[in-house]
Amino acid sequence: MDQTIEPGGTPATAAPAHPTVPHRPLTVPAGEAEARARAFHEVMDRRRTVRDFSDRPLPEGVVEWAIRTAATAPSGAHVQPWRFVVLTDPERKRRLREAAEAEEREFYARRASPEWLEALAPLGTDWSKPFLETAPAVIVVFEVHKGPDSPRPYYTKESVGISVGLLLATLHQAGLATLTHTPSPMRFLNEVCDRPPEERAAYVVPVGYPAEDARVPDLRRKSLEQVMVRL
């Protein structure tokens, strides 16, 4: 611990510049670490983006716990520049769908390049977004920028992106399906969600159970050798 010298030569313990608390690490025996990591991978490897949702109600408290987990993400300067707006009101979700589909029509008809549309073709996406109404909840994630009641954030997109990753993982662990929808531009979401201008929408995440007849594209993830470099 740092020390200072008091007048007369007596050492004194210096108070830390900022308060700290003892770290509470998750203790895992070395022999179990790989098995735990593998088990988590096997669960997450079954996660898929779903576009066909059931209107089955969500279990009580699951969304709240998922957002609590998302809010544990690291953030630049610990500013925590995120806001999670949960839409469950049918009228509010209808307004969201109408506004999102208006932007998506423009995207598919005029904004997207031929190369972009070709890349999207295997996914079977188009401007129609019925899941925004069918899913029992839609979480709209906002980046919180500097405003009258919010400090300047740092590494905002990176921080919010990490938090959304934790959100998706937690909801999947709870047996729920999700989709990350990013209509562009997104300013209409401030009106739909009653948010101030310093908050900027980044993700729209429908949450629910997949429909019984839900199907997903037959895709393959890259292998470890394709995504990892060991030096």
From TrEMBL:
Residues 46-209 form the Nitroreductase domain. This is Oxidoreductase. CDD domains: iodotyrosine_dehalogenase (cd02144). The lineage of its organism: Bacteria, Bacillati, Actinomycetota, Actinomycetes, Kitasatosporales. Residues 7-25 have a biased composition (Low complexity). One of its GO terms (molecular function) is oxidoreductase activity. It comes from Streptomyces termitum. The keyword Heme does not apply. InterPro entries: Nitroreductase, Nitroreductase-like, Nitroreductase/BluB. Keywords: Flavoprotein, FMN, Oxidoreductase. It holds the Pfam family Nitroreductase. Residues 1-26 are annotated as: Disordered.
